[in-house]
Design brief:
Layout lengths: L11 H25 L6 H11 L5 E3 H7 L4 H13 L3 E5 L7 E5 L1 H21 L6 H22 L3
Antiparallel strand pairs: 1-3, 2-3
């Protein structure tokens, strides 16, 4: 519904969809975080471990890791310090750029990923994937893809 100032207010249906998305996002991330707690990990920790475990030589430039995890460089630096103290990652200097640093997955970090990943996948299945049939999953993916593409483009990362 439009007003004199040009605001396009959400319709009742749009409002329901938006609020359902917000609720599901918060509840799902809360549940996944709870399921990581027995391993002493947060969602942020796990996301960093996943990124490092899937990267070449289990290492990423800190700036690239910050971009991949949607964290500021400062916030990521604090996160990496905590993970270093836990023995999960270490920092290495970048030979080609003296100002650059790498975050590197340690052996302990790799073993943690191998131990935690099956539990995390089971949690994702229980609280998300298995609640939808194949048709619903395809429709959800098709619905979310243009939003993700728009937001990546808005961020300047295509």
């Amino acid at each position: 519904m439009d007003t004199e100032n040009g605001t396009r207010w959400l319709s009742e249906e749009e409002q329901r969809a938006w609020r359902a998305h917000l609720e599901v996002s918060r509840l799902l991330m809360h549940q996944l975080e709870r399921d990581l707690q027995p391993f002493g990990l947060t969602n942020n920790d796990y996301e960093i471990l996943v990124n490092l475990s899937e990267s070449e030589n289990h290492r990423m430039r800190m700036s690239d890791l910050a971009t991949a995890t949607l964290q500021s460089k400062s916030r990521l630096s604090h996160q990496i310090t905590r993970m270093e103290n836990a023995g999960l990652v270490r920092r290495e200097n970048c030979e080609s750029d003296r100002r650059g640093l790498y975050a590197v997955l340690t052996e302990q970090g790799w073993e943690t990923m191998r131990k935690v990943a099956p539990h995390h996948v089971a949690s994702v299945r229980e609280h998300f994937i298995d609640l939808l049939n194949e048709t619903e999953l395809k429709a959800l993916y098709g619905s979310l893809l243009p939003i993700a593409q728009h937001l990546r483009q808005t961020r300047g990362r295509v």
